[in-house]
TrEMBL record, chains A, B:
Signal peptide: none annotated. Residues 3-151 form the CYTH domain. InterPro entries: CYTH-like_dom_sf, CYTH_domain, NeuTTM/CthTTM-like. It comes from the Bacteria. The lineage of its organism: Bacteria, Pseudomonadati, Bacteroidota, Flavobacteriia, Flavobacteriales. This is CYTH domain-containing protein. It comes from Flagellimonas abyssi.
Length: 157, 157
């Protein structure tokens, strides 16, 4: 499945989002390529596996080509073994707000202390409700790409 | 689908293999990563698309982890647009010999003049019939990896 992913990304100020979360899922992921122009991600999300390719973002940083296919967890585990150093672990919380779903990632390991929220939009200028816990926008800032967090984790900033 | 790919690779001395070929198929392929430790290949082979990940080879160069999934030609074409420079084009001939199938690639474009034959084996020491047209063995020589031919094509050697 492929589409243009339009999303905005924010820092998170408090853990208040956890009270509004409807799910939390552990994610382990690695990268077969961390180049922002052709990122290749292998992910185990709960009991499911995924392989995802993303292209470069547009100028505003909101839109990237994304192609994803589901694979077995066993296949994903084998592919993660081939990945570059810097396997990421995080817990993803789904937080519904109005007609949008925020995905808030609480990073573990070398990125512990980092909380990032993303909201997927149907077009770049779409309005959305901003919860109190939402912090500064970091859309398009490459250091917050997961691929870059695997190379230069938050603890080293 | 994943497996350990065991194969040996040879130069090809003459075009006599074409008389024995049972099929020929045009292949266009690019790489989302050319690193021999985590090669990510996108291929359009005739009317089918594939995404393939290969790991590092063993010491003798015969064996590599390989994972492959079939994708649509449209998806493959979009992913090829994201690939590193150096899209490869070649015609693949299937040449049966005894109980083995040789795959002979006649490269086009920047690799024109290069002919490479591969034979897939079930174990490293498996014997196989050597046709007259088979030349010097180049198994494990990284410059003959397709990923490396896309970076440093035969015409530049």
């Amino acid at each position: 499945m492929e589409h243009l992913e339009i999303e905005r990304k924010f820092l998170v100020k408090t853990e208040a989002f956890k009270q509004q979360a409807i799910s939390q899922t552990r994610i382990v992921q690695g990268f077969l390529n961390t180049d922002p122009e052709r990122t290749v991600r292998v992910r185990i999300k709960g009991e499911r596996g995924f392989l995802t390719v993303k292209g470069a973002s547009n100028e505003s940083g909101t839109t990237r080509f994304e192609w994803e296919t589901e694979i077995s967890v066993a296949e994903a585990a084998n592919l993660i073994d081939l990945c570059e150093a810097g396997i990421l672990e995080k817990v993803r919380f789904e937080v519904p707000l109005g007609k949008h779903m925020f995905e808030v990632d609480e990073f573990l390991g070398e990125n512990k202390g980092l909380l990032l929220a993303e909201v997927e939009l149907t077009h770049e200028d779409e309005r959305f409700e901003r919860p109190d816990w939402l912090g500064q926008e970091v859309t398009g800032q490459v250091q917050y790409y997961n691929s870059q967090l695997s190379i230069k984790p938050f603890k080293e900033w």
